[in-house]
Design a protein that fits this description.
SDR_fam; SDR family oxidoreductase; single chain; 6 helices; alpha/beta; oxidoreductase; about 240 residues; Rossmann fold; EC 1.-.-.-
Length: about 240
């Protein structure tokens, strides 16, 4: 199924998976509203699309996913420009990896705010429009650690398990409105998320942001009667 002229919102779109996904979906003719805190990087993305590298349109609006007013403004921007919302991709994410007794309260709150509250706020802002349309698709970019734990990962995995629970309940709430809910569970991705940064020698065999973007395109482009509830993807070198 074509995604041409679909209206898609992506959070955390200034770099990495979000940026690659925005460009790929716009190349396939979707109109993409992108948000993140870094206004300069968002504007560069919008400018690149405006130069004719994509068939669709990319509209940038800076915002913080932990701010309810910002997420309401993102949704309103999508409606002002394109008059509907077909897909929301909750991609913004943040991780801190320490043993439990080393984690500060501020660190706990920051990770939970971005990964859990941020997912809630953007989803909540978009749902009234999707319910009125009786269609829509909520995608949450979680992680394979929504399914497993590891030492030093208590905070991050707790946030991803929370996203998993949120998805499960949401899926039951909105199915009768014709709204799909999909979870994307990635393994190791070569991105700025990791301590050594993007392009380091140790991550050369990881998934690339473009691999994750292709996964998103696949999920979104299924026929109307098909929903991918869960999509797990790993680099071949990573055991799960």
């Amino acid at each position: 199924m074509t995604i041409e002229n679909k209206t898609i919102i992506i959070s955390g779109a200034s770099r990495g998976i979000g940026r690659a996904t925005a460009l790929l979906l716009a190349q396939h003719g979707a109109n993409v509203v992108v948000t993140a805190r870094n206004a300069d990087e968002l504007n560069q993305l919008e400018t690149e699309a405006a130069k004719g590298h994509v068939r669709g349109k990319i509209v940038a609006i800076p915002g913080d996913v932990v701010n309810e007013s910002d997420m309401a403004a993102v949704v309103q921007t999508a409606l002002d420009h394109f008059h509907r919302i077909d897909v929301v991709i909750n991609n913004a994410g943040y991780g801190i990896f320490k043993n439990v007794d080393e984690i500060t309260v501020d660190e706990w709150d920051a990770v939970m705010a971005t990964n859990v509250k941020g997912t809630f706020l953007l989803t909540k802002a978009a749902l009234p429009t999707m319910k009125a349309q009786e269609s829509g698709h909520i995608i949450i970019v979680a992680s394979d650690v929504a399914k497993r734990t590891f030492a030093g990962g208590s905070l991050y995995t707790a946030s991803k398990y929370a996203q998993e629970a949120f998805m499960g309940a949401l899926r039951k709430e909105v199915r009768s409105f014709g709204i799909k809910v999909s979870g994307v569970y990635s393994g190791l991705v070569d991105s700025h998320f990791h301590e050594k940064g993007h392009g380091h020698e140790t991550s050369k065999h990881y998934l690339q942001s473009e691999d994750m973007a292709e996964s998103m395109l696949f999920i979104i482009s299924r026929p109307a009667h098909v929903v991918i509830d869960e999509f797990m993807v790993h680099p071949l070198e990573q055991e799960y």
